[in-house]
């Protein structure tokens, strides 16, 4: 059953001497599940092929962006055509105007926006805008939500709710950490209490409106209502980090799904069509405060890059075609139903959570509501499941704290193969 990984193994050994863990982003090292990460040679549609020639059905989809499947011919053609016209100008282009118009059709609350090169940049810039327009330094995030690796976001909550944040990475100054307040996800009361005591110090609240970075957790109605009402009642901004949920949980992200308008929105992943892109934007009154029309500084040599813009535009055009979402949602629903049936049949303690085209299998009695409940899931069991699926040609995110992603290239055949593998792997 076990596949050959000789070339991946030897590449990993060499890579470890050159890059921390042999990788350029930590989760790729497979620390949470063990084993050798396959080094990927190519990808097409729903499939990855590694350096040893093994083929996998891919449920990472480059952590979300590949919603149309890998190497979609129209996206590849758009990138190639753009490359021939020059890869970067450092000057405005017509494609950026077209791209901004397209993004606003999906996210009407993004009246004005700025393009950057990653989700991290989008989130740190949105926070800077919130701080700049309110003149306040503090802000609120939720435990288990990820907003990129900028200093202000790498902060853990202290024990009591009103305590100052502690850096969760060396290199993040404590003087900065004390402006970050971390609360449990789905805890409307904690949010109200914090704003009641410190509301006038807080610039905003940033949230993954459906979490993906601790696995898929749906927000409660009460929590959503508090997010909409509490910050604004205290003159603070609501920032939806839709880097993962944007174009994923619904066409217009969580805002579309829940009928909520954020003050500022962060996008990344799908919007770049597989190239490095982020976008932040929102109400004109806030975004007009960004340089050069306003005093909040933010810039980027490669921002609005022609290749990235071409990939993003081609992706959004395909997503605007009628039925584009139905196809991905149908695949996700079929996998969800099939896994639930297997869990029931095999008597495994597990639950499947899903919102749109993102889902997670948690090894627990019931769907977690926050980070503490995710941490209490059986992550050793997930590790065994992950390894058994990989051996059977199914590439899942290498951690039980992650979302799985579907694409338009995942058809009935791929779902059937995945369920066949899961029938054995769930009891591994
Ligand atoms: C991936 C992600 C980010 C960071 O984006 P990068 O492009 O990796 O910098 C921020 N927020 C959320 C919700 C994400 O999923």
Structure explained in plain terms:
The protein has 428 residues and is of the alpha/beta class. The chain folds into two domains: 6-71 and 323-425, Aspartate Aminotransferase, domain 1 (Alpha-Beta Complex), CATH 3.90.1150; 73-319, Aspartate Aminotransferase, domain 2, CATH 3.40.640.10. It has helices at 6-16, 73-84, 94-106, 119-134, 174-177, 188-198, 221-233, 253-258, 284-287, 306-319, 324-346, 371-375, 379-391, 412-425; strands at residues 40-44, 47-50, 55-58, 112-116, 138-142, 155-156, 166-167, 180-183, 202-207, 237-241, 264-267, 278-282, 351-355, 358-362, 394-395, 404-405. Strands 4-12-11-10-9-5-8 form a seven-stranded mixed beta sheet, sandwiched between helices. Strands 1-2-3-15 form a four-stranded mixed beta sheet. Helix 3 (94-106) runs parallel beside helix 10 (306-319) and helix 13 (379-391) crosses helix 14. Bound molecules: pyridoxal-5'-phosphate (PLP). Residues 118-120, 123, 146-148, 208, 212-213, 241, 243-244, 268, 278 line the site of pyridoxal-5'-phosphate (PLP).
């Amino acid at each position: 059953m076990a596949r050959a990984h000789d070339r991946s193994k030897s590449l990993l050994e060499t890579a470890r001497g050159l890059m921390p863990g042999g990788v350029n982003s930590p989760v790729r090292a497979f620390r949470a599940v063990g084993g050798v990460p396959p080094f990927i040679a190519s990808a097409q549609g729903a499939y990855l092929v590694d350096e040893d020639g093994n083929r996998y059905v891919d449920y990472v989809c480059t952590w979300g962006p590949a919603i149309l499947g890998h190497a979609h011919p129209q996206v590849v053609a758009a990138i190639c055509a753009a490359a021939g016209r020059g890869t970067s100008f450092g000057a405005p282009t017509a494609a950026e105007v077209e791209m901004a118009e397209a993004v606003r059709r999906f996210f009407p609350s993004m009246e004005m926006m700025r393009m950057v090169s990653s989700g991290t940049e989008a989130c740190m810039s949105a926070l800077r805008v919130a701080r700049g327009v309110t003149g306040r330094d503090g802000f609120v995030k939720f435990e288990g939500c990820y907003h990129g690796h900028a200093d202000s976001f790498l902060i853990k909550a202290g024990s009591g709710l009103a305590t100052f944040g502690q850096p969760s990475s060396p290199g993040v100054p404590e003087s900065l950490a004390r402006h970050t307040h971390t609360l449990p996800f789905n805890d409307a009361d904690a949010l109200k209490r914090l704003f009641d005591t410190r509301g006038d110090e807080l610039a905003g609240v940033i949230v993954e409106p459906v979490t993906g970075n601790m696995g898929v957790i749906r927000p409660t109605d009460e929590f959503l209502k508090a997010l909409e009402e509490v910050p604004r009642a205290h003159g603070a901004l609501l920032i939806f980090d839709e880097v993962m949920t944007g174009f994923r949980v619904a066409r217009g992200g969580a805002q579309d799904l829940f009928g909520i308008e954020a003050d500022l929105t962060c996008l990344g992943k799908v919007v770049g069509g597989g190239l490095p892109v982020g976008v932040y934007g929102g109400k004109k009154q806030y975004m007009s405060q960004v340089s050069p029309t306003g005093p909040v500084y933010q810039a980027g040599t490669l921002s609005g890059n022609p290749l990235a813009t071409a990939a993003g535009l081609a992706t959004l055009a395909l997503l605007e075609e009628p039925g584009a979402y139905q196809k991905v949602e149908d695949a996700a629903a079929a996998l969800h139903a099939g896994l639930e049936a297997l869990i029931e049949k095999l008597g495994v303690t597990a639950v499947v959570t899903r919102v749109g085209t993102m889902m997670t299998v948690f090894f627990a009695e019931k769907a977690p509501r926050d980070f503490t409940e995710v941490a209490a899931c059986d992550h050793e069991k997930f590790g065994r499941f992950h390894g058994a699926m990989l051996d059977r040609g199914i590439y899942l995110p290498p951690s039980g704290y992650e979302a799985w992603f579907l694409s338009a290239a995942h058809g009935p055949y791929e779902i059937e193969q995945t369920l066949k593998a899961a029938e054995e792997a769930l009891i591994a």
